[in-house]
Amino acid sequence: MQVITTTDELSRFSKALREQPYVAVDTEFMREKTYWPILCLIQAAGEGEEAAIDPLAEGIDLSPFLELLTDKKVVKVFHAARQDLEIFHKLIGDVPAPLFDTQIAAMACGFGDQIGYEPLMRTLLKAKIDKGSRFTDWSRRPLTDAQLSYALSDVTYLREAYPILLDTLEKQERKHWVEEEMEALYDGDLYYVHPEKAWKRLKLKGVRPKEMGAVMKLAEWREQEAQAKDTPRNRILKDEAIFELARLQPKDGAALARARSIPSGFERSRTGAALVQVIKDGLSIPKEQLPVIDKPDRDKAPADVLELLKVLLKRQCETHHVAPKLIASSADIEAIARNDQADVPALSGWRRELFGETALRLKRGEIALKLDHGRVDIIDV
Questions:
Q1: How many domains does the chain have?
Q2: What would the DSSP string read from start to end of 179-196?
Q3: Domain at 179, CATH number
Q4: 285: domain range?
Q5: Among 67, 71, 65, 88, which residue's Cα sits nearest to residue 10?
Q6: Which 8-state DSSP code applies to residue 31?
Q7: 13 forms bridges with which residues in the sheet?
């Protein structure tokens, strides 16, 4: 097992990988006590080449490998890439490209919703992966042989799975499906929370319009503090505290002390004073500049239409061997049930051909569903 701990070794390895059409990549990281993930290990594999790169090794410069990630001639293959891409986006300020996510590809090939790495490799390659090292402390050195063996298996099998999935997609003429999904992964906003947009992560059910400004500013302040101090956002201020403070709207330290979510004595600290000012700033936002909070029960989709569309989605996905979540989410189904012109992915492109148009025909009464030997079938009306 090759473990790279020097910049020279990494340069040679990265140069060899840049001569290949694709490279499988994975990471091991920790973030339980931090806001930003701590990168502990990078695994990479190309044809005849595989290694674990130690980013914690003294003096190592990751630049040669990061340059590989931005090389447009080499496809970077990940499985469930989102968290790995967040790490690399912070390191290089961009998303590695071009990308291929085997989890998304597997969904397009009919392997189910968000299939995990181990079951996918077991199905495709009959691989047996020992997951005993999965939740070990990757920041401790030296790493054990068991850890390294597990880590490298995450890319050596991935290297073999990629051409199989790619060939399947091409034979089924579904490669463009996956390419469309990959486009969404290039959006840098997926991997960085802009503090002024942090309120969008909150579940706003029950928030009243007059509280919205305070919620927005409190969420923004918390995100700034968490990023600056590199600590989880809920260690700065819990979601429940944001909602309570937005409801109470304390105007001074004494009022802040009455909040159940605030520790005793906190109101006398600089942070307590900062919170009071943040709330004041939120309350001063003009009403016309505040976002409108959607009311989930407004224009509720008819239950019978909703259930019919769910049955149809299941039928279409089983017939065409594709994972339902790749076609339409529950929110998409509800939107289609309410509105034939809903702005959802399921009503455009290949998804419309596979499901969306049929769903609209079902709503219009042009087709019906029937049971044929225990299976759902479609008939023209």
A1: 3
A2: HHHHHHHT-GGGS---GG
A3: 3.30.420.10
A4: 195-289
A5: 65
A6: -
A7: none
Q: What is the pLDDT of residues 248-271, one digit of tens each?
A: 999 999 999 999 998 888 888 999
Token pair, residue 168, equals 């399947």
**Distance (Å) of CA 87 to CA 26, 58, 95, 198:** 11, 20, 9, 19
Q: State pTM to two decimals.
A: 0.90
Indicate the Cα dihedral angle 145, 146, 150, 153, nearest 10°: 50
CA distances from 189 to 95, 146, 166, 183, 198 (A): 10, 36, 28, 13, 11
**Whose structure tokens read 């047996």?**
128
In the chain, the amino acid numbered 55 is: P
Indicate the residue type of 321. H
Could you tell me if 9 and 145 lie in one domain?
A: yes
Q: Is 374 helix (H, G, I), strand (E, B) or coil?
A: coil
Q: Are 268 and 304 in contact (CB under 8 A)?
A: no
The answer to whether the CB of 151 falls within 8 A of the CB of 117 is no
Whether residue 36 contacts residue 12, with contact meaning beta carbons closer than 8 Å, is answered with no
What residues are paired with 49 via a beta bridge? 46
In tens, the pLDDT along 41-54 reads 999 999 999 999 99
Nearest to 336 by CA among 305, 367, 381, 293: 305
Q: Say which residues have a Cβ less than 8 Å from residue 319's Cβ, sequence separation at least 6.
A: none
Question: How far apart (Å, rounded) are the C-alpha atoms in residues 361 and 381?
Answer: 10
